[in-house]
Specification:
Length: 161
């Protein structure tokens, strides 16, 4: 069985993420969506909340598992015995960072390959940080996130005002 890991913060999950998840499920037998705990970021949602939001969004994909991880991604890959990473490239500006990360991961774990996927053009400008900013300023986010994520995000933003 060919497995891959799609890692991210997913704070919040966007329709761009879902587009990549759907594409990844067509090229691998089993996809693990790995919600990362990143000490350098201040997420709006807890890791448990992010995992739950992703789980609800992917419940119709039988070959998708949602998990969380802390620490180095390549160590997580080894623990899960997965040799492929899925990474999204929205725009050229993503390339430099993702390229550096892929080369660093290759140095740390030569057995792990990185596969880059591009979302549909209609989703290429969407980022979680942009969605959080729009929601915080009271803007409509319906076109950017699944309905359950919109509700959770609006509740969270309203609570923090």
């Amino acid at each position: 069985m060919k497995q891959a890991i799609y890692p991210g913060t997913f704070d919040p999950l966007t329709i761009g993420h879902l587009d990549l998840i759907e594409r990844a499920t067509r090229i691998c037998d089993h996809l693990i969506i790995a919600v990362g705990i990143n000490a350098s970021k201040q997420p709006l949602f807890t890791v448990e909340e992010r995992v739950a939001l992703v789980q609800e969004a992917v419940q119709d994909f039988p070959n998708v598992e949602v998990d969380s991880f802390d620490g180095l991604l390549v160590q997580y890959c080894r623990r899960k015995q997965v040799r492929a990473l899925i990474r999204g490239l929205r725009a050229f500006s993503d390339f430099e960072y993702e390229f550096q990360m892929a080369l660093t991961n290759r140095k740390l774990a030569p057995e792990v390959e990185t596969i880059f996927l591009m979302p549909q053009e209609t989703h290429s400008y969407i980022s979680s940080s942009m969605i959080r900013s729009i929601a915080a300023m009271g803007g409509a986010i319906n076109d950017f996130v699944p309905p359950h994520v919109r509700r959770a995000l609006e509740q969270r933003v309203n609570r923090e005002i």
